[in-house]
Amino acid sequence: MNEAYPIFKCIVEQSSMNKAAQLLNLSQPALSRKIAKLEEELGAPLFRRIGKRLELTRIGQLTYDYAIEAERLHRRYMQTVAEFKETGRSSLTIGASLTTLQSTLPDLIALLQETHPEIDIKAVTGKTHEVVNYVKEHKVDIAVIASRLDDPHVQCTPLFDDHLILAMPRALITDEQRLIQLQDLNDIPMILFTKGTWYRLLTDELFEQYQLTPEIRMEIDSFEAILRLLHTFRAGALLPKSYLRQQLMADNDLVTYHIPQLEATKRTTSLIHADPNILDAAVRSCIYEIATHYQKRT
Description:
Blueprint: H1 4-14, H2 17-24, H3 28-42, E1 47-50, E2 53-56, H4 58-87, E3 91-97, H5 98-103, H6 105-115, E4 120-126, H7 128-136, E5 142-145, E6 155-162, E7 164-169, E8 190-192, H8 198-209, E9 216-219, H9 223-233, E10 237-240, H10 246-251, E11 254-257, E12 267-273, H11 281-297
Helix pairs in contact: 1-2, 1-3, 1-4, 6-11
């Protein structure tokens, strides 16, 4: 941190060059030279002298505000460095249920790589109950699952709600403004997730409830493969809304349709972890960044 800014801040708060010089253990000429150099760097005066009183210029006020913020950030930075040195943490292990592996985990890792570039991130996947046990057994630091969790041994923070929507190749659509009803799925060939996956369970329950029997062209558990194969099989697919971002749809020349009944397939993606009081500072910081990020999105 440039030493001129805390010196300048001290002068402002003492309202006197002489008092500031005594407090900083500097001679007044040395103090004046440092302020003169800062004014030269900024290309503007910081003070106006009104008799024996110093008054901040507009640039001086902006510089004082900056000095306060810079001091706060520097203090926070040094505290974080001290905590990292104390814990020796250089890695973070994230657990992810199979459902969140393709839809949420990539974004979450990208976020943490941006906000915590000093941490090496590792990931472990498994079924939801396995990932919950990983948290309880401290095999992972945090985890994301596609449900809410009520467990006294695990803390759960809901991140966002999601539901299935219909995605289809643009080439199959004659009128993009046409409303598609749920019963229309009977006439649309479909690519579904493989049996046993969370999304397939939702889909099967939906088909059973509304007595739908669409033609199933293929079953697969890869989001990316489904998108690529929609054109090949001239089919549609029910995919989570959170995964179907605008750019992804454009890159694959797909369109989406919102069907009201599909909102019943809603599920909540949550972040789970152990009691924060037993986690080190780096993990707590990551938890805070993730929760804040998704709160802003929603």
